């Protein structure tokens, strides 16, 4: 099996992407976010538009991120369990490299497999790009594309997520462990799932698979 995990709201309890936008983006970000939540934009398009509104230097944003890490309990122990059990663990997030990578460094896990939005900083804002495993630009379905790719590396895919951006990929997974809003979305679409509260709970459940 291979575990594919979201980042914001899943590995960490809070959502650093939202915190950064609330703190540093102009008010237009909320209209863009609403367009995403109502299905008018993909999460990839939405993040590209919203983060273009932020003109702060990377170092300032990363300092802010380090002050707001709320790691879901049991994550470090869960990764050790995966390593000891030879279970590959890949973070596939529509979040962005500039804030996810410092978090992984802070928790002592800089080498975890990570696939996420790539950023470049300029005076005109943050430019966001998503690429599929072959290096092609992706404007929709980033997480689903990586799930398909990961399936070629292993057998069953266990999917971990918490929100709307996880729904499409979760539909294609063999087992789904959900928290937050994703629980309701999966129930609405009659997709089988297990709930988890922290990574201690998740480890107990995965041992039973």
What's the topology here?
Layout lengths: L1 E4 L10 H9 L3 H10 L5 H9 L6 H9 L8 H10 L4 E8 H10 L6 E10 L2 E5 L12 H10 L5 E5 L5 H6 L2 E4 L2 H8 L5 E2 L3 H9 L2
Parallel strand pairs: 1-2, 1-5, 2-3, 5-6, 6-7
Antiparallel strand pairs: 3-4
Structural overview:
By secondary structure, this protein is of the alpha/beta class. 43% of the residues lie in helices and 18% in strands. The chain is built from 10 helices and 7 strands. The chain has helices spanning 16-24, 28-37, 43-51, 58-66, 75-84, 97-106, 142-151, 167-172, 181-188, 199-207, and strands at 2-5, 89-96, 113-122, 125-129, 157-161, 175-178, 194-195. A 7-stranded mixed β-sheet has the order 4-3-2-1-5-6-7, with helices on both faces. The longest helix has 10 residues, at 28-37.
Number of helices: 10
Assembly type: single chain
* DSSP strand content: 15-25%
Element string (H = helix, E = strand): EHHHHHEHEEHEHEHEH
* Secondary-structure-derived class: alpha/beta
Helix content range: 40-55%
What is the number of beta strands? 7
Separation, N- and C-terminal Cα atoms: 10 Å
Largest sheet: 7 strands, mixed
Q: Average pLDDT across residues?
A: 97
Morphology call: globular
Gyration radius (Cα, Å) is 16 Å
Q: Ranges with pLDDT <50 over ≥5 residues? A: none
The order of strands across the largest sheet is: 4-3-2-1-5-6-7
Summarize the structure.
This protein is α/β, with parallel strands linked by helices.
């Amino acid at each position: 099996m291979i575990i594919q995990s979201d980042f914001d709201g899943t590995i960490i309890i809070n959502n650093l992407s939202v915190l950064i936008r609330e703190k540093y983006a102009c008010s237009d970000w909320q209209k863009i976010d609403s367009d995403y939540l109502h299905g008018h934009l993909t999460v990839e398009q939405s993040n590209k538009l919203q983060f273009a509104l932020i003109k702060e230097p990377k170092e300032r944003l990363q300092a802010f991120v380090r002050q707001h890490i709320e790691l879901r309990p049991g994550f470090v122990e869960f990764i050790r369990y995966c390593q000891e059990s030879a279970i590959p663990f890949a973070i596939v997030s529509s979040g962005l490299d500039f804030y996810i990578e410092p978090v992984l460094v802070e928790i002592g896990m800089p080498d975890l497999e990570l696939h996420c939005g790539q950023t470049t900083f300029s005076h005109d804002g943050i430019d966001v790009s998503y690429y599929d495993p072959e290096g092609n630009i992706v404007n929709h379905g980033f997480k689903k594309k990586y799930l398909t790719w990961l399936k070629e590396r292993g057998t069953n895919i266990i999917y971990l997520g918490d929100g709307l951006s996880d729904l499409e990929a979760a539909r294609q997974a063999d087992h789904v462990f959900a928290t937050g809003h994703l629980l309701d979305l999966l129930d609405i679409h009659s997709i089988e799932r297990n709930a988890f509260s922290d990574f201690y709970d998740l480890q107990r459940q995965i041992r039973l698979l």
